[in-house]
Amino acid sequence: MIIKSADFICSNTQISRLPIPIKPEFAFIGRSNVGKSSLINMLVQKKGLAKTSQTPGKTQLINHFMVNELWYIVDLPGYGYARISKSKKEDWNKFIRSYLDKRESLQCVMVLIDSRLEPQKIDLEFCNWLGEKGLPFVLVFTKADKQSNVKTDQNVAKFRKAILTTFEEAPQHFVTSSETLSGRDELLEFIDGINRSFTPPPFDEEYYKS
Question: How far apart are CA 7 and CA 66, in angstroms?
Answer without folding.
Answer: 5
